[in-house]
Amino acid sequence: MKGNILTPAGWVFGELHAGPDGRIARIEGVPAAPAGNDAPFVLPGFVDLLNHGGGGQDFMDGAAAVPAILRAHARFGTTSLLAATMTAPHDVLLCAVRALGRACAGRPPGAARLLGVHLEGPYLNPGNLGAQPEPPATATPEHLAQYLGAAPLKVVTLAPEMPGHLDLIRQLAARGVRVQLGHTLGTYEDAVAALEAGASGFTHLFNAMTPLRHRAPGMVAAALAHAEFAELIPDLLHVHPGAIRAALRAIPRLYAVTDATAAAGMPDGVYHLGSQTVYKAKGSVRLADGTLAGSVLTMDQALRNLVAIGLDLADAARRVSLYPAQYLGIADRGRLAEGCWADVVVLDRALSVRSVHVEGECCVGTA
């Protein structure tokens, strides 16, 4: 893979070589500013930590849906991701999580790597569900233990103000699970208490959480004041560019997620998000009442949107690759360095995808 390569030390003009084990064997080249030539950009593969589906399929549909979703998002540069769940009755949710756990054991040809599960439902506030269906659940140790045993549970979203959830945060954090605050009516004080208990992130910042007001600063202010990491949907529909810029100034490692649905990569029409019917039109996906219901965003478009609102390409690339990998504690993805997985996206000068390599396999374009 030749071009302007974004390494941890900065841009290098040269060539990246993958070994037979699917990892980066070496990078040959010289430091050079990418503006000095017309070569393509060679970036770390994108890492998406909130993804409900794509290519017409939803992760809640079970194992048969997974390969199509992973291939759909690989087309747009996503080389690894978490499968996000929706609120559902315990037996339905557990069945879905078990199927996703089995899918994590391998990677279909031509597809992104499934890293684990983001349990976005059911531990939410019933007053701020967004497009999550009724009814949310009260956490129980028994149910939680079943989810943890069924799949690599990497992230759990919950509303910290709900009864018992501070204890749940402590239990999950002790297991190495990242706990994010979201779908919440919690106060600033609720958020601070949750962070002190071990929460480490915020789910789709600004959306489905209490806003910043100067005498009631809410969940948003807690993120801006205290967070090292937070996720945000940069489709420019969920969050205004001005709010994105404010978050970028406040949160050191703010990173992008798609919150993609089955409608991502598909034509306008009727799709589903968990048990909900959703409608794709005019670049968005919504419930029948007009509520935004996830997105049709792909990570390559997230990158372009971040650049469009003023980020330089290296900074934007870190927010779709390095920072989400760091948030999960993964050192060998999200960066281009010797020994890391050869998860690589090659973009042309217009930032359109030319080729995608997952663990050394050329999944899109030509080698």
How would you sum up this structure, described in words?
The chain is an alpha/beta fold. The chain has one domain: Alpha-Beta Barrel (TIM Barrel), CATH 3.20.20.140. It has 10 helices and 20 strands. The strands form 5 sheets. The protein has a 7-stranded mixed beta sheet. A hairpin with a 5-residue loop joins strand 2 (10-18) and strand 3 (24-31). The model has no long low-confidence stretch (mean pLDDT 96). Substrate binds at residues 131, 207-208, 215, 238, 292-294. InterPro entries: Amidohydro-rel, GlcNAc_6-P_deAcase, Metal-dep_hydrolase_composite, Metal_Hydrolase. One of its GO terms (biological process) is N-acetylglucosamine catabolic process. It comes from Cupriavidus neocaledonicus.
